Amino acid sequence: MASLDLETKAKEAFIDDHFELAVDLYSQAISLNPSNAELFADRAQANIKLRNFTEAVADAKKAIKLDPAMAKAYLREAMACIKLEEYQTAKTALENGASLAPGDSRFINLIKECDERIAEEAGELPKQLPDEVTTSVATPNDVPPAINLSNQITTISSTKPKYRHEFYQKPEEVVVTIFAKGMPADNVAVDFGEQILSVTIDVPGEEVYHFQTRLFGKINPEKCRYIVLSTKIEIRLAKVDAVHWTSLEYSRDVAAVQIKNVPSGNQRPTYPSSKPKRVDWDKLEAQVKNEEKEEKLDGDAALNKFFRDIYKDADEDTRRAMSKSFVESHGTVLSTNWKEVGSKKVEGSPPDGMELKQWEY
């Protein structure tokens, strides 16, 4: 199928709130036409809807690289960065986009929002200093081992590391954050081994920073990735096995004893924060999901939710069947049986009393 056809179907899926299907279709189109900036910008928007903000930033940056004059790519980069609380990066993207679309009020409004957030963070800084000093001298019993990793940096010197770092985990990945502010991406090198993470930050005129450790468990280097943001470096390690890491660094004493399987289900991590006020996002998300579950939908809304739930929980063959049937039938057929639709073209099947027409795009 041509890239243009896939793009059209991806847009239709996005309009129908089938965001995962839209991302899949955009990815197929990109594989056929990897130099199309529009595809990356639109996939960024779909990733934002799915709350895949890191992926959205990467897509928006790729779109900007391919077409520096695309205003909406800067807007989508900024929207994703705001969700990641990267307000300075978002502001820079908005200012660049505003110069390309001076009449678009969205840029002006979001720049104001970023200024307010940056001012709030600057105002909180003096309040955080005492907490940071206390944390640096706290005993291991006072600090949760999952996020206090100051003992796990492999260095020759015993002095305090130049950059603070933390980690949290999901069943399928571990996310490591190194708080290196304003670091150019060209000065950062991250290497992944089977059970090794190595980070080098080389700033001219400064001592080279090395962080290298043998990890608690094995990772898949091909699926690992990282992104350099304005206040931090975010590294995502893809686990080989869905087990719980009791620490970031390997330990012979606990590796065989304390590993345990992560419970099944969509369990989300509680994100560490240095802000004085903290929101229990797990509890909030559970409440929202419960409200969505109890909400009674009618008509197209109920049908769309039904299809989204099928696609979200489906295996690979079922997703392929849904994608192929939806695209080839021009949105009139949605099959979950890959054996039935995989070997033949799916013909359109309009409702009774309606006629299927081929549209020219």
UniProtKB/TrEMBL annotation:
Residues 270-361 form the SGS domain. Keywords: Repeat, TPR repeat. It comes from the Eukaryota. Gene3D superfamilies: 2.60.40.790, Tetratricopeptide repeat domain. InterPro entries: CS_dom, HSP20-like_chaperone, SGS_dom, Sgt1-like, TPR-like_helical_dom_sf, TPR_rpt. SUPFAM superfamilies: HSP20-like chaperones, TPR-like. Residues 342-361 are annotated as: Disordered. Belongs to the SGT1 family. PANTHER family: PROTEIN SGT1 HOMOLOG. This is Protein SGT1 homolog. It comes from Forsythia ovata.
